[in-house]
Each structure stands twice: as structure tokens, then as C-alpha cells.
Amino acid sequence: MKSLGKLAVGCAAVLALNGCVIGGTEGEPNLDLRVRGTVTTEKGEPIKGIRVIVSRDTCYTDGEGQYETALLNRPPCDFRTAYFNDVDGEANGGAFASDSVLLTSVERVMVKEGDGGRYAGEYEYTIDVKMKAAE
Q1: Per-residue pLDDT tens for 35-90?
Q2: 28-131 under CATH 2.60.40, yes or no
Q3: What residue segments make up the domains of the chain, in order of their start?
Q4: Residues contacting residue 103 through CB under 8 Å, at least 6 positions apart
Q5: Quick one: how far is CA 55 from the chain centroid?
Q6: What average pLDDT does this structure show over 94-118?
Q7: Residue of 94, 66, 73 lying closest to 23 (CA atoms)
Q8: 65 closest CA partner among 111, 131, 114
Q9: What is the rounded distance in angstroms from the CA atom of residue 69 to the CA atom of residue 119?
């Protein structure tokens, strides 16, 4: 009997986590998310070509070091970390160490209200990163 209880708890845990892994549960609202910002050297010089990954979206910084991602109609649990990677080595200002930022550590601004139902609105994060030189 005790093993059946443990099995039931284990199955419930897997099902609870599965909602975030495959894109939400039936009652979970979705939202639109934009992450934007500027990537610079420690001296404040913009870096072109830095790969930025947020959830399943990838973009690259432009010549001004700016980037923007748009993730639309996704469950909130899809958004955890923004990753910043130098993928071109010495080109575009030198080689830089990878960095990451937890979205929960950054202020989120609502730019569009939800519908009170399954759509929770549109939110925006601004994340400016100063990349350190690779060692």
C-alpha cells in the first residue's frame, strides 16, 4: 500500500512538471513576451553578433549591440533565462565569455493587459549586458 502511495505522488509530480515542459496545462494562461536590450563590452562599446537565446527564440545583436526577441502566446513557465553567447570568436571586438540572466531578477513591465481569461497580456523585459573578455 505504501508503494502505491509513493507511485501516485511520483506520477503527480511528473504530470505537474510536464505542463511547463510541453507548453502549459489547460487552465494556464498564455502571454506575449518581449526581451530587448543592448550588449556591450565592459568599457561600454557595443558588440555585434552576440547570440541571444530566450526560451525557444534566438536572435543576434546588431551593429549597435541591440537585440529584441518576441515570444508570443506562450505559457509563463517557458520564460526562465536569457543566454548571451559570443559565437564569432575574435571578430566583432574580441572573444567574450558567455553570460546569462534569470528573467525573475529583472523588472517586468506590462505593455498590454490580458483579456481576463486565457491571455495574460504582453510583458517586456529590458536586459542590458556587459560582456567580459574570454580568458
Answers
A1: 999 999 999 999 999 999 998 889 999 999 999 998 877 777 656 899 999 998 88
A2: yes
A3: 28-131
A4: 35, 54, 79, 80, 81, 82, 125
A5: 5
A6: 92
A7: 73
A8: 131
A9: 19
